[in-house]
Amino acid sequence: MPEAPEVEALAHFLRERLTGHAVTRVELIEARALKTRARPLDEIVGRAVTGVTRHGKHIDVDLAGVHLGIGFGRAGWATWQATGGGSEEGGSGEIAAGAAVIARIAFDIGILGITDAADWLSVQLHVVDAPDDVPAVAKLGPDAADPAYSRDMLSAALGKRRKQLKALLQEQETLAGIGNAYSDEILYAARLSPVAHAAALSEDDITRLYLALHDTLGAAVIARRGVPIADQKAAKVASMRVHGRTGEPCPDGQGVIEDIPGTKGGGQWCPSCQTLPEGA
Q1: Which UniProt keywords apply (predicted)?
Q2: Range of the domain at 121
Q3: 265 and 158 within one domain
Q4: 109-141 in b/e burial notation, b at 16+ Cβ within 10 A?
């Protein structure tokens, strides 16, 4: 689950709620999630939030110079329980089915829970001096959801690489913030095959891919903002046109949505609409 649009919505929510509020206590339930063993989670207790930023699919919480990095991995997410049990906009504190609470961070106005629904531990927590001190953040490429991300930047990232487009879009060192679901949606909007190689794209293909990336992520960022934390996954799933729609009619054509070969059902496309570039 979370990709740039959902993580951006969460960062916005936390920034609005937590700026100026201090951590009152912490509870680390799964010790393996904390990757900075020399810097315990207790270090953030008593410190007030001065900023919350998104870095790809990661969140950085600035606590007056000490930073809490939260990497959600494939199955991590968050809950918010307002003080007194109220269910103000942003969540009721309920966790998704099958998820486990990894850590709780309490403030005077509520409790932020970090959860993980994977069979393996996918969430990572870091207590650091700067966002880039988190290794995964330091390696990130340009942010795919940044309005300033340009066609020229995408063209340079694609280069002449003999790598399939779906895999390349999910390569965080090349383009940060896109995962399995939005890569399917972007390629469908661009009418490009997920197994096409970047090196085979024409200038027109690159333009279509750029516009699809910009429009798909831009619309998703707007759509997710204000959706309660507990409802983000459902909102994302409902918005998908091809991802997770195996066997359903193509929303724009006469074809049928199929699993992408080699993904074992993890990715979907419309073979009738999404074609290989000429000469590929």
Answers
A1: DNA damage, DNA repair, DNA-binding, Glycosidase, Hydrolase, Lyase, Multifunctional enzyme
A2: 4-138
A3: yes
A4: ebbbbbbbbeeeebbbbbbbeebeebebbeebb
